[in-house]
Amino acid sequence: MWGSSRKNGYTGKALDIILSLSPDDNEVRLYRSFKCDVKACSACDSCARNKGQCVINDDMQAIYEDIMHCDKLLFITPVYFSGFPSSLKAIIDRCQMFYNYPELKNILPSKQAYILAVGGSRPYPDQFTGIESSLRYLLRSINCSLEAKLFFTHTDSFNGRFEDDKTDLIRDFALKMFTKGEN
Predict the structure, then answer these.
(1) DSSP 3-state assignment of 85?
(2) Which tens digits make up the pLDDT trace of 66-121?
(3) Do 149 and 116 meet the contact criterion of CB atoms below 8 Å apart?
(4) Which domain holds residue 155?
(5) Does this model's pTM top 0.85?
(6) Do 41 and 116 form a contact (C-beta atoms < 8 A)?
(7) Would residue 146 count as lying in a domain?
(8) Which end of the chain is more exposed for a tag (fewer CB within 10 A), N or C?
(9) SS3 content of the chain, % helix, strand, coil (to 5)
(10) How many domains does the chain have?
(11) Going by C-beta distance under 8 Å and a sequence separation of 6 or more, which residues neighbour residue 178?
């Protein structure tokens, strides 16, 4: 789940590093939230009455399937006012379907989640708390554990690229993601 509107921004650059380290046999599904047709959750609770079936027909149908059947989820996103960008938040909010039909959690395979987030501003208290909180409740609903997180602050000062030490952190993050759970 990629939450940036900027293809060549910091999250895009980090994603390129991560994907370059992905083993050839990995099946990767990339959802760039700004390109997805995902309507806002209307809180109609139809999903609770319809055994987890959302009545809104849009790109979320494919996203639901991939969430249900994946073994790992990566969230890579900029941080806007301590939260997810609206397009990625809409996807997360539409996962209310999993919360409203908790029986799904019992049949979903366990999965691992990873988050890499960048904040352009100088560091401030609770800069990433909003995204962590939203993600925590989503992950509980889909039988998923948060395995690793990597946060960068003050990226507005990075002059358009990650320095070697930051690139090394991203590589280590990716390798952790690609080796976790393997024999």
Answers:
(1) coil
(2) 999 999 999 999 999 999 999 999 999 999 999 998 888 788 999 999 999 999 98
(3) yes
(4) 10-179
(5) yes
(6) no
(7) yes
(8) C
(9) 45, 15, 40
(10) 1
(11) 21, 22, 23, 26
Helix/strand/coil for 78: strand
Structure tokens at 14: 């980090």
Residue 15 maps to which CATH number? 3.40.50.360
Cβ atoms of residues 110 and 145 within 8 Å:
yes
Give the pair of three-digit tokens for residue 183.
């024999």
Full DSSP string of 142-182: TTEEEEEEEEE--GGGSTTS--HHHHHHHHHHHHHHHHTT-
* Integer angstrom CA distances of residue 107 from 69, 102, 103, 104, 181: 11, 10, 7, 5, 20
Q: Which two tokens stand for residue 45?
A: 């609770």
- Segment 40-65, tens digit of pLDDT: 999 999 999 998 899 999 999 999 99
Q: Is residue 161 part of a domain?
A: yes
Q: How far is CA 142 from CA 87, 102, 138, 169, in A?
A: 20, 9, 7, 28
